[in-house]
Amino acid sequence: MTTIRHGEHVQPRSKMIKLSDSNVKSLVMAKSIKENTMRINSVNFSNDGMHMITSSDDDSIFLFDMQSGQKKKNVNSKKYGVSLIRFSHNISNAVHCSTKVDDTIRYLSLHDNKYLRYFPGHSKKVVCLCMSPVDDVFLSSSLDKTIRLWDLRSQNCQGLMSVGAKPVAAFDPEGLIFAAGVTNKEIKLYDLRSFDKGPFATFKVVDDYPHCTWSSLVFSPCGKTIMINTNGECIKLIDAFNGNLKYNLVGHENDAHEELEASFTPGRFSMFNL
């Protein structure tokens, strides 16, 4: 894994630069992180951008300080494996999926490497895990064709939706609604306060790359756009209010059908693709 910086100096938070074509092209490698012996399967940043957490197929979890680029913590999940790791709203804790034993989601204290809570329920691999931006609620979706709603304070599932196909899901920036993508063709919008009544809107998405499977959804910081990541050559941007296609971002050489992962930068309409 590599981290990047602008020019020769890491930018202090008080002197953050605005992104443009010219300064993005001038980004250079600042540090290469080689802590893992196997593939890093997920990366997540804290809400303030000051910390990064990674999970790997070698069952390790690393916590990094993003100002210094230094490793702060290493814990392992040898018994259960680890993937899709996400910070809670406290950077001392994280929630992650299992790759061994079963498909239980686990809530981990990074401080002492102890599990605080287990969230059983999914019967097949969990493919999506996302925290609410405002509280301790989180969503999971699975190859068992369900989406589950959870609260970190209880091991009991708070809501269950059977959608009939592999789903992906994401919260909007205000944590009031969530989007579910199903069958690689539809986006369904749910009100978190009344999700049991079904979606309040359903959009058919232009299926101009039929060989691409959706891998995740991401709302833009303004909430007006939904990004659809795939395992093909295309990333889609659609209007979050009517489902109209805004852009197809193409040109990725992805013959191995790895899941593309792109995110928006905070506060403006720019994005990076990993």
UniProtKB/TrEMBL annotation:
<protein>
    <submittedName>
        <fullName>Uncharacterized protein</fullName>
    </submittedName>
</protein>
<dbReference type="GO" id="GO:0048188">
    <property type="term" value="C:Set1C/COMPASS complex"/>
</dbReference>
<feature type="repeat" description="WD">
    <location>
        <begin position="119"/>
        <end position="160"/>
    </location>
</feature>
<dbReference type="InterPro" id="IPR015943">
    <property type="entry name" value="WD40/YVTN_repeat-like_dom_sf"/>
</dbReference>
<dbReference type="GO" id="GO:0016070">
    <property type="term" value="P:RNA metabolic process"/>
</dbReference>
<feature type="repeat" description="WD">
    <location>
        <begin position="33"/>
        <end position="74"/>
    </location>
</feature>
<dbReference type="InterPro" id="IPR037867">
    <property type="entry name" value="Swd2/WDR82"/>
</dbReference>
<dbReference type="InterPro" id="IPR036322">
    <property type="entry name" value="WD40_repeat_dom_sf"/>
</dbReference>
<keyword id="KW-0539">Nucleus</keyword>
<keyword id="KW-0677">Repeat</keyword>
<dbReference type="GO" id="GO:0003682">
    <property type="term" value="F:chromatin binding"/>
</dbReference>
<comment type="similarity">
    <text>Belongs to the WD repeat SWD2 family.</text>
</comment>
<keyword id="KW-0853">WD repeat</keyword>
<dbReference type="InterPro" id="IPR001680">
    <property type="entry name" value="WD40_rpt"/>
</dbReference>
<dbReference type="Pfam" id="PF00400">
    <property type="entry name" value="WD40"/>
</dbReference>
